Amino acid sequence: AGEGSAPGPEDGAGPPAPQRVLFPPTFSVSEIKNKQRRHFMFLRWKQQQRKEKLALKKKRRKEREALGDKAPPKAVPKTIENQRVYDETTVDPNDEEVAFDEATDEFAPYFNRQTVPKILITTSDRPRGRTVRFCEQLATVIPNSHVYYRRGLALKRIIPQCIARDFTDLIVINEDRKIPNGLVLSHLPDGPTAHFRMSSVRLRKEIKRKGKEPTEHVPEVILNNFTTRLGHSIGRMFAALFPHDPQFIGRQVATFHNQRDYIFFRFHRYIFKSEKKVGIQELGPRFTLKLRSLQKGTFDSKFGEYEWIHKRREMDTSRRKFHL
């Protein structure tokens, strides 16, 4: 061996160091017949892809640091949200027609401060323990809400009693196999009524690193990404559940976040750690809603007039098409 060369196996220095495997450009794992070998080579290939991606990322970061202020703007990654198909019903905040509709719709008395929210929360017949606990925890999130159990009463009989007792909204939690799976929200006395599919329900004891029990302060309300005419109607329905003036001293926030037509509900408490940092802790409960229908007037399953119904086969043809 020449001077300065690496020792080989004939030098008695042990086996040579393993070399990095480079896969050819036309490499296809599916061509390998042996299943175990195919799986092993697939893992090796994925590892190599990750290393190359990380190296490219480091290279670009160094180039940006070297260029300083002259560096080009970062590329915006493509997501389902920013590749969304344009919806002609997207609301323009300066649209006079939208402003007129909102000034004369069923929620106008609430937004004009003529009514104070008073909510009735009830369940399907014979609710099980999990649904009962969920209703009780939901009542601690929504101020001035009262939980009553159905006792076999039909909704058509409950609604007139709610109107007579000055309730402004009715929430019905449905369940299937002891799990809450549906929510009906009806604005009183003239509607509309929205039916949601409910999923991913988590009670307070099931949430990790949760905060202490919520206080009786009126929470702040955040409504995110309700951009279409239908989304505006749903957002106004949720807003009408909470009193107008939040008590900021309680530092509690109820969030309805719409993403790809799934409405994620979270309830948090925040605390100012410094002038720039804010810490948050989730209080619970949490759940996810998916709109199934929006009906004019109060609940009427037989003769009700529907403004919007979700039809999977017709409406879900594109993953980039959203309705809220």
Automatic annotation (TrEMBL):
Residues 63-72 have a biased composition (Basic and acidic residues). GO terms for cellular component: nucleolus; preribosome, large subunit precursor. GO terms for biological process: maturation of 5.8S rRNA; maturation of LSU-rRNA. Keywords: Ribosome biogenesis, rRNA processing. Residues 1-14 have a biased composition (Low complexity). This is Ribosome production factor 1. Transmembrane segments: none annotated. It is found in: Nucleus, Nucleolus. The keyword Zinc-finger does not apply. It comes from the Eukaryota. May be required for ribosome biogenesis. The keyword rRNA processing applies. Residues 117-300 form the Brix domain. GO terms for molecular function: rRNA primary transcript binding. Residues 1-23, 51-76 are annotated as: Disordered.
